[in-house]
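Table S2 (text version). Query chain:
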Amino acid sequence: DLILEAGYNYVSAVHTEGNYGASGMKALLDLSEEAGICTAAELAVRQHVNILSDPVFNKTVLELASHKTAR
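Corresponding structure-token output:
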């Protein structure tokens, strides 16, 4: 509902690795698909990272930035 209320129909989503994050992502993607919201990227990051030096985190940020029209 928040995504639609904000007027977005093309989004990227990030979750933490593990069952809790993965199940939350699945629920978000299922609801988004039902609502006609397209997903540019579905990305996972580790729960505890050093944001200044973790290569996976940095790759995730770059991937998000590459989808310029996604919110």
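Notes on Table S2: The helical segments are 2-5, 19-35, 55-66. The radius of gyration is 13 Å.
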